[in-house]
Amino acid sequence: MNNSLTLKDIAKALNLSISTISKSLNDSHEISIDTKKMVLEYAQKQHYSPNRLAKGLKEGKSRSIGVVVCSLDNNVIAQMLDGIDKFSTDKSYQIIIMQSKESPIQETACIELLYAGGVDGILISPACETVDFSYLQSLQDSGLPVVLFDRLSDQIETHKVGADNFKGAYDATIHLIKNGYKNIAHLNTNTILSIATERVNGYKQALADSNIPFRPELLRSCDYSDTQKLNADLEESIKYYMTLENKPDAIFTAADQISTKCLVLLNKLGFSIPGDIALIGFTNTDLAEAFSPSLSTVHQPAFEIGQLAAQKLISLIERKNHAPEFETIMLETNIKARSSSDFKTVN
């Protein structure tokens, strides 16, 4: 198998579009017999994707699903994968999991390998910097079912399953306000992901609805692509907040790793929680209860997101000759209030 050869390479060599190459390899009725023959002969000559070609491009299924995630080192993603695996296994499909490591280039390589391996469909939670969905779109156009989960995008039309991030952020901010906190900082990721935008907007809306002015200096972003950068950005942000004349009395964090690392850093820097500063954040870690103090969280229905995403993908794989009506499904989050956001004490 030629792992270095891509659909783009074949398209360039034959002066055809990527979509035409994909459709030819999938034996699409939209492509002429002569074109399909030319593409197949070239692909075989270059030893491209023998597993898929060995299937004879028949209508039969491999009963396998490709899953592409940002990282396996993430509580929410791990729980989503459990949901995907449970539903897929119940329906007699196996799953093949690959990591993009937040790299769009690696993400494309993962998708190509899964496609070459003959998966029946792909579930993907896109990398934080992915802006170009044209390759994924070309595979979808050629007949490969694709479903987005967790991180959703308007760049591709398909089923999408995620959490209601706006409402989760709104509820977390309101929780802090009701507990007496008014100067609420927000730590988010430096990504273009819709989940980041939705969480910022939920935070801002909660402030507005509570007649609390939004203070731009309390909104900071952290580099999410690398653990060392994330730690450095978090420490810098916390030190910056605590040097402000009008310091924040609470922090709302918008991502799993930011939430847990923020608690550890605040303790390390000697700040009392919630005495000096309260904390609540998005995370599904089982350790939230065991932290000192226990961490208030926005809990996402991760298992259910994975389960429903798998259900939607398998429904596309097994559909009988009719165009699907795509849905975007946002499941509710819930607040788990613990010690880190207890009622503010007035000295």
TrEMBL record:
Residues 5-59 form the HTH lacI-type domain. It comes from Pedobacter psychroterrae. PANTHER family: HTH-TYPE TRANSCRIPTIONAL REGULATOR GALS, LACI-RELATED TRANSCRIPTIONAL REPRESSOR. Pfam families: LacI, Peripla_BP_3. Keywords: DNA-binding, Transcription, Transcription regulation. GO terms for molecular function: DNA-binding transcription factor activity; transcription cis-regulatory region binding. This is LacI family transcriptional regulator. It comes from the Bacteria. InterPro entries: HTH_LacI, LacI/GalR-like_sensor, Lambda_DNA-bd_dom_sf, Peripla_BP_I.
